[in-house]
Amino acid sequence: MENEEVSMYLSIGNDMAVRDGSIIGIFDLDNTSTSKRTREFLAKSEENGQVVPCDELPKAFLLTSEYGFHRVHLTALSPATLEKRLK
Hints:
By secondary structure, the chain is of the alpha+beta class. It has one domain. Helices cover 28% and strands 36% of the residues. It contains 3 helices and 6 strands. The protein has a 4-stranded mixed sheet with strand order 3-5-6-4. A hairpin with a 2-residue loop joins strand 5 (60-66) and strand 6 (69-75). It starts with 8 loop residues before the first strand and ends with a helix.
């Protein structure tokens, strides 16, 4: 059992969870959506079917990569709440 990796999961609301090791970043939508590049990135991700929506008004998005697939998870939780849950 030595050197066995234990995966933890982060609940991101909307009955969704992501593996903590797959998270590339957690981003505040209010602060990042003012950037043209971020808006282009989110639009392109949506065109490619990589966006996982949430039912409520999103406050943040998580960029994940797992098994060669990149996903953008929208969440109504604040980035601060998500970061606290990771600790």
